[in-house]
Structure formats: structure tokens, C-alpha cells
Amino acid sequence: MVGLFDDADVLRFTRLPDPVPDGYEREWLARYEDGRRDGSREAFAAVDDDGAFLGLALAPEIDREAGEAELGYVVAPAARGRGVATEMLRALTAWALDELGLVRLTLIIDAENPASKRVAERCGYELEGVMRSVYLKQGRRIDAELWALVRRTPRAPGPAPSG
Q: Phi, psi at residue 64, to the nearest 5°?
């Protein structure tokens, strides 16, 4: 993960602080461990058949009561251009819909990140709009696009999934 935090594209197109403070990876992991315990966030490492790290598939915000989650993905530099982001998002989307039973999934994508927008489209997400000047990063305001996928058929009633 530390390699991701040093990558110029990861720093540019994610909400990671830039520069990344010392010890940030431990804080980040602790937040996701806490979120896993209380069901409010989740992170999965993507690896290839040989165990090499490909990236992260993330649910930085899960609202089980509302049936919604924000999802995201970060691809390691060596794995880019091989369809890894698309596969991660497809798997993450299936997990959120099938395992968690969520209804609405969102992606927040930097408006200047065409590769990520193509991934969203390939996975069935639709652009809902642009959030202008939504983040301040390195002294400049960032526009981000809101993409969403909404479950078209309601989930059968039953017990809430455990996670």
C-alpha cells in the first residue's frame, strides 16, 4: 500500500492527502478495520494468481439502513492498463448488491480522470452530475463527477445480510 501512497496519479485522483503524512497508512488501515467491525466501510486487496498486489477495491462509506454505499478502486501502477480496475469494480459492485443487499451505489470520480470514468461506464454506472469545487487539494479546488448504479429490481424481503 505504501507504493500507492507514493504514486503521482493516486495522489492526484484520490482524496489522499498530498503529501501523505508519516504513519498515514496505519491510520488508514485502522479506520478500515474499525469500519469492517461496525459495517460502515470495507476494503479488499486485489492480487493476481501469484499473489502480486494489483490494487484496492473500497467501500469508504456504507449506509446499510439507507441501502447505499460509496465505492472506489485504486490500481497499482504496475497493474494499470490490464482491466484490473474494471474487474475490481465489477466484483465490488456484485458484493455490495448481492452480499449487502444495497440499492444505490455511487462513485466520486475526479472530473479530469478519463480512465476512471471509462471504468464506471463499463460497469454500468451512470453519470449523475458534476460536483463543482468539491475538494481542496494542494491549494486548488477539484471538480468531481458523481456516478451511480441503482438496483433495478427490488431485493426479496428477508433478514439483513451479515457482514
A: -65, -35
* pLDDT score of 45 more than 70: yes
Q: Please say whether the beta carbons of 159 and 100 come within 8 A.
A: no
3-state SS assignment for residue 81: coil
**Does the 2-150 domain belong in CATH 3.40.630.30?**
yes
Helix ranges, 14-154 (H): 24-38, 84-94, 114-122
d(CA 141, CA 132): 8
Using the structure block, give the residue that is written with the C-alpha cell 479488499. 44
The pLDDT of residue 25:
83
CA separation for the pair 92, 42 (Å, rounded): 10
28 and 60 in contact (C-beta within 8 Å)? no
Kindly tell me the sign of the dihedral angle through the C-alpha atoms of 152, 68, 143, 92: negative
Asked whether the bond before 17 is cis by omega within 30 degrees of 0, the reply is: no
Q: Interhelix angle for 114-122 vs 84-94, to 10°?
A: 50
- pLDDT 10s digits, 69-114: 999 998 888 878 889 999 999 999 999 999 999 999 999 999 999 9
Q: Dig out the grid coordinates for 156 from the structure.
A: 426479496
